[in-house]
């Protein structure tokens, strides 16, 4: 079996299955795959140094090695806060109004990708499989090839791929995608993002594209693009069932809701998640059905993220203002309809909160996959499950058609779904949940990693 080299912006080692803490499913999947194959997890340490040296910090983990490098402050500004989070993230979530096209960001991004390639190349052995994660490293494959690496190189994109008409607003978009085609395997979360990618390659690069196999041929390279929908670590998550922490969290939320039905949202505080729009939907519901004020409690858990970026400071201020206004208008002395909690929780606690909620409200404006939708389903009581309301614009909607799928831009549509969910008979809730749960259970993150690695390790693709 070939060794595996994983590259991602950050490296996070777990202490074995079930101990992932707040690190999430991806860390668990990467740790699992690395333990099985042996190899190296390479990334940024998260630390800054005055002068970049490329010096590697190597640490032995359980069955594999981690290797990290430090970056200069201006690299972090331009590559991470800049190009990754102020250019690519908004653009790839269809927010060209928020995307910033600064030449220095692009230069910083290319420079850091080159630094990564430089530090990584000496570590790679002949038969190693190299698996790169996410939008921070779209050109890394090409950089590694420029250093003479002949290994199989794979890329998985965790976020959406934008439609061609939006992507062309990015200066040097062609250069970026041409560089990507140096990977052998390119994975997307859903067939929608995959189709947008293939469309771009055909229309803008005049590449030879075979839609059925996902093969893209350009300038003598052959890349294969496929959809690999990511999942949660189902076993790890289900191990929280019945734990004291989960039970206590369940009781805290269910008890404090008194007789109201809990609607839960759990998201990083990000403008792609549609949080202000959820308050608009609540407003719509409360206006059209006045009795709802006494029947619903909406709990939104939203820890701040990327606080160095202005658009994130703005979304936070907007949300705080809207929540305040809403609660001011609809509260009573003993009743506040929205609880907005600005911090993270442990995964066992989340399990308990999800289980206490009659409705899981997952309405991003755009999302690569969305794992909260899957966690909400997994945590339900099979006898008396809650209802998942899911945005049709999340990658997860392709697999989870038994949720109440909504247009997250329409307050009316989301309000209607809230009403329907609240009145849904238990038989229908069970029938929908069983199908959803089968998807979440049978397509977990361990299988996702295995599928990707299997294609990456497959014999080289033939030129068409
Ligand atoms: P994210 O945008 O971070 O991930 P998501 O898929 O929902 O979105 O994953 C969030 C994870 O963080 C979940 O496991 C969730 O439980 C956890 N989390 C969120 N809020 C939390 C809180 N308050 N406390 C504790 N934990 C919290 C990106 C893409 C997604 C894609 C994933 C994985 O944007 O579309 O699904 O990567 O590929």
Primary descriptors:
alpha/beta, 10-stranded mixed sheet, 16 helices
Strand order of the largest sheet: 3-4-2-1-5-6-7-10-9-8
Shape: globular
**Terminal residue distance:** 28 Å
Strand content: 15-25%
Low-confidence stretches: 17-22
Radius of gyration based on Cα positions = 23 Å
The molecules bound to the chains, other than polymers, are: adenosine-5'-diphosphate-glucose
Folded structure, characterized:
The protein is an alpha/beta fold and 464 residues long. Helices cover 43% and strands 18% of the residues. It is built from 16 helices and 16 strands. It has helices at residues 25-37, 73-92, 103-120, 140-146, 164-167, 173-180, 191-205, 234-238, 244-256, 275-288, 310-330, 347-356, 371-378, 411-422, 426-442, 445-457, and strands spanning 4-10, 39-48, 57-60, 65-71, 129-133, 152-156, 185-188, 208-210, 215-218, 221-227, 261-266, 296-301, 338-341, 359-362, 387-391, 404-406. The strands form 2 sheets. It has a 10-stranded mixed beta sheet with strand order 3-4-2-1-5-6-7-10-9-8, with helices on both faces. Strands 13-12-11-14-15-16 form a 6-stranded parallel beta sheet, with helices on both faces. Helix 1 packs across helix 16 and helix 10 packs across helix 14. Adenosine-5'-diphosphate-glucose binds next to helix 1 and helix 13.
């Amino acid at each position: 079996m070939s060794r595996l080299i994983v590259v991602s912006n950050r490296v996070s080692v777990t202490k074995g299955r079930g101990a992932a803490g707040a690190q999430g499913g991806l860390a668990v999947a990467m740790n699992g795959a690395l333990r099985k194959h042996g190899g190296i997890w390479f990334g940024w340490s998260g630390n800054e140094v005055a002068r970049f040296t490329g010096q590697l910090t190597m640490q032995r983990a359980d069955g594999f090695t981690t290797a990290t490098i430090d970056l200069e402050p201006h690299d972090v500004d331009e590559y991470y806060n800049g190009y990754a989070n102020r250019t690519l993230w908004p653009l790839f979530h269809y927010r060209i109004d928020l995307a910033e096209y600064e030449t220095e960001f692009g230069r910083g991004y290319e420079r850091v990708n080159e630094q990564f390639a430089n530090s990584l190349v000496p570590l790679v052995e002949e038969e190693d499989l190299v698996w790169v994660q996410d939008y921070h490293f779209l050109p890394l494959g090409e950089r590694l090839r420029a250093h003479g690496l002949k290994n199989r190189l794979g890329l998985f994109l965790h976020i959406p791929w934008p439609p061609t008409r939006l992507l062309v607003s990015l200066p040097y978009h062609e250069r970026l995608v041409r560089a990507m085609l140096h990977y052998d395997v390119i994975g997307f979360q859903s067939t929608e993002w995959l189709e947008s990618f293939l469309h771009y390659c055909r229309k803008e690069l005049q590449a030879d594209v075979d839609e059925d196999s996902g093969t893209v041929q350009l300038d003598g390279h052959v890349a294969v693009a496929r959809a690999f929908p990511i999942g949660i670590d189902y076993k790890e998550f289900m191990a929280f069932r019945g734990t004291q922490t989960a039970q206590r969290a369940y009781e805290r939320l269910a008890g404090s809701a008194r007789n109201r039905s809990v609607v839960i949202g759990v998201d990083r505080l990000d403008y792609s998640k549609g949080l202000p729009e959820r308050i608009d939907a609540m407003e719509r519901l409360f206006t059209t059905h006045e009795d709802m004020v006494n029947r619903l409690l909406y709990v939104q858990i939203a820890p701040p993220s990327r606080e160095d970026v202005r658009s994130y400071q703005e979304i936070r201020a907007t949300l705080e203002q809207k929540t305040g206004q809403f609660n001011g208008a609809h509260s009573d002395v003993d009743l506040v309809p929205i609880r907005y909690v600005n911090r993270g929780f442990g995964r066992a606690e989340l399990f308990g909160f999800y289980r206490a909620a009659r409705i899981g409200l997952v309405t991003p404006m755009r999302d690569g996959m969305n794992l909260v939708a899957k966690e909400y389903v997994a945590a339900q009581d099979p006898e008396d499950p809650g209802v998942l309301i899911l945005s049709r614009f999340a990658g997860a909607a392709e697999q989870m058609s038994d949720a109440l799928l909504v247009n997250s831009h329409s307050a009316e549509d989301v309000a209607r779904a809230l009403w329907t969910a609240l009145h849904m008979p238990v038989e229908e809730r069970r029938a929908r949940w069983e199908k959803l749960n089968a998807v979440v259970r049978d397509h977990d993150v361990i299988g996702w990693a295995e599928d990707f690695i299997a294609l990456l390790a497959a014999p080289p693709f033939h030129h068409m």
